[in-house]
Amino acid sequence: MDGVVGLSTAQGSRERLLARLEARQARIGVIGLGYAGLPLALRFAELGFPVLGFDTDGAKVAAVEAGRSPVHGIDGARVARMRTGGGLRAQVGAAGAAGCDALVICVPTPIGPHKEPDLSAVRATLAALEPFLRPGQAISLESTTYPGTTEELVLPVLARAGLRVGEDAFAIYSPEREDPGNPEGTVARVPKLVAGATAACLAVGRALYEPVAGSLVPVSSLAVAELAKCYENVFRAVNIGLVNELKRIAHAMDLDVHEVIDAAATKPFGFMPFRPGPGLGGHCIPVDPYYLAWKARELGVPSDFVELAGRVNDAMPAYAVERLRDALDARGLPLRGARVLLLGLAYKPGVPDTRESPAVEIFRLLEARGAMVSYHDPLVPRFPPTRRLRGASPALESVALDEARIASQDAVMVVTPQPGMDLALVRRAAALVVDTRGVMRGDGPGVVVTA
């Protein structure tokens, strides 16, 4: 008799949650209001769900509560509409989690100093949520991570809370696929992977995400979704590593690597063009190879391509500095004491994000070699001191990009060409341009060296 009652209770928890999701009455809690979490919270709110955002950063919470966007590229008017006329709220602390029907975790998963996975934000989030977990809730992890994370970290928390996974609580993994700066790279437009710890969890996951996602791609297990997310980013990292090696070979042969790529790209099958650069940055592409390689080592299997790509891409900032040193040397100038202006400190054009940015590493290497370095980036007006760059010295500030400034430099290095940068002015006024992105190719005045 007890088994019949238990089954009925479990079915009731799932059916009530599914009904609330279908009616868009379920309260959605989004933990982490950054590049992944805030657009997801807005998407839920715009479709009529009540949404409660959580973040440890009080400034982000205050901005959302005031109807402002704390994230570059997300329209403040959207936040204002959902805050005043929609169901969006935000808070610091996890106390409101008890009132949420679904809790979606969108927190950072960086790498540690020895290239090991750093899941401290996920662990801290789960620890904060644990006292507020209750029957009838779903927990979905969206952070990029190695296969096995959801099972290893989320399921034990639910068990300690006295909840039975797939019966009265539902564990989901559905990785974010936001592409900052790309209006097509949003949850509303990109197919979304979704997996559950059980068939019942998958059913809840589908009901949770079907309203907000461009389309759903259900997979058979949590680990499949976790590995697929790693692989899609490692795919890019490996191919970028390959083209970065090709760049070095082309330079040694005095060939234009971009002309080589353009020529190869005329093949209509079996080829996908990737572009070289000064290294990798951001929250996924430079990180995920190390998550996958770490898991492979734990399993005792090789991950040679993955690890090699990581090493190649990590070496590109130093290679860019070498190209600059050689270009200065050809003009009879030493790198030590040279005045060098870096264009772009963010990791990619169109965003202010400096996480893992190769520009920061280039800046550090140049300072270590005695160069006098400054930077211009209209989206990064100030860069606070870090352990990697200038220690405890005052914050760096972006300098104006004008003819006098450019002409006063021994070299200008194009690292991240932000929208609106006057590259024609740079070409006219600079004594030497070292171009790490191939954006200054073609005929024109000035000395341009690719790096």
Question: Would you give an account of this structure?
Answer:
Pfam families: UDPG_MGDP_dh, UDPG_MGDP_dh_C, UDPG_MGDP_dh_N. This is Nucleotide sugar dehydrogenase. Keywords: NAD, Oxidoreductase. Belongs to the UDP-glucose/GDP-mannose dehydrogenase family. Residues 341-442 form the UDP-glucose/GDP-mannose dehydrogenase C-terminal domain. This protein has helices at 2-22, 37-46, 58-65, 76-84, 120-129, 149-160, 199-209, 222-252, 257-264, 288-299, 304-314, 316-330, 358-368, 403-407, 423-429, and strands at 28-31, 51-54, 88-91, 102-105, 137-141, 169-173, 191-196, 215-218, 339-343, 372-376, 382-383, 396-397, 411-414, 433-435, 448-450. Helix 8 packs across helix 11 (304-314). Helix 6 links the parallel strand 5 and strand 6. The longest helix has 31 residues, at 222-252. The protein has three domains: 2-220, NAD(P)-binding Rossmann-like Domain (Rossmann fold); 235-312, N-(1-d-carboxylethyl)-l-norvaline Dehydrogenase, domain 2; 315-451, NAD(P)-binding Rossmann-like Domain (Rossmann fold, 3-Layer(aba) Sandwich). It contains 15 helices and 15 strands. The strands form three sheets. An eight-stranded mixed sheet has the order 3-2-1-4-5-6-7-8. Strands 10-9-13-14-15 form a five-stranded parallel sheet, covered by helices on one side. Strands 11-12 form a two-stranded antiparallel sheet. It is of the alpha/beta class and 451 residues long. Helix content is 40%, strand content 13%.
Fill in the keyword field for this structure.
eight-stranded mixed sheet, 451 residues, N-(1-d-carboxylethyl)-l-norvaline Dehydrogenase, domain 2, Rossmann fold, single chain, 3 domains
